[in-house]
Each structure stands twice: as structure tokens, then as C-alpha cells.
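Hi R.,

Here's the chain you asked about this morning:
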Amino acid sequence: MTKQIIKDTLNVFAYIVIMSAIISCNSNSKTDRKNNPTEISENEIIPDTVVQFLLNSASNDFRNHQPPTHIDFRNVKIGYTKSTNNEKTFILCGEFLSRENKEWIEFATIKTSGYEQYIGKTQYCQDATMVLTGENLSIELKNKLTEK
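And the predicted structure, written out as C-alpha cells:
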């Protein structure tokens, strides 16, 4: 009889440990999503006019405001944030290699009534839903800078 009680107690204890581990793992993944809200959307399309506007705006800004002087680009992607009234604000995010600092620096170019460009880490890119495009936007941005 005592062996049965010990066995039942161990089974209950094992069940509690396993359930705690499952709940803990589930809770951590929700926390990770809150801390890193950037999503990738494969089902949405950003109009090419918006993509080209942001690429042109970013290239003009990099050309006209130096230093820092860009050498290369990477991880350039496009997406949007939504306002409280569900309006989309489009944003181009990426990194450029600075000639002066010899390090990769983040940037964000936002479509407003014109555009705004920010150098350095911003919350805009972290909060954005990124949209997959068929193009390599890093190469397109670099090409736009060498065009003119």
C-alpha cells in the first residue's frame, strides 16, 4: 500500500514538472514575440511606386548628407507600421557600412508627406511588419546611388 502511494505521488510530481515546463516554454515564446514584434508578411504587396519612392529618397539622402559616408548596404527591407486608425506608414529599413567608422549602422527611411530618414537604431523598424519582395533591395539601393 505504501509503495502505491509513493508511486502515485511520483507520477503526480512528474506530471506537474512536465506541465510546468510546457507552460514555461509557451510563455517564453509569447514574451519573445512581444519583445521582437517585427513580422514578415508573405501575403502582402507594397506598391512599386512606394518602393521606388523610398529607395530614391534614401539614396538622395545618403548622397546629400555626408558624413557618415556609405560604402555598402545590407539587410535592406521594406514594410509598414499601422496607426491607430489603421493607416499604413511605409518604411525602408537596413544597414549601411560607414567609411568613417568602418561599422554597420542601421537606418530607416519613412514615407511621410515627403520622407524622413533616421540614422541609427530606431523603434520604427522594430515595430514594422516587413513585406517580402522579389528584389534584393540592398543591391537596388546601391545601384540608385551609383546612377546619378
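The two ends are 88 Å apart (CA to CA).

Let me know if you need anything else.
M.
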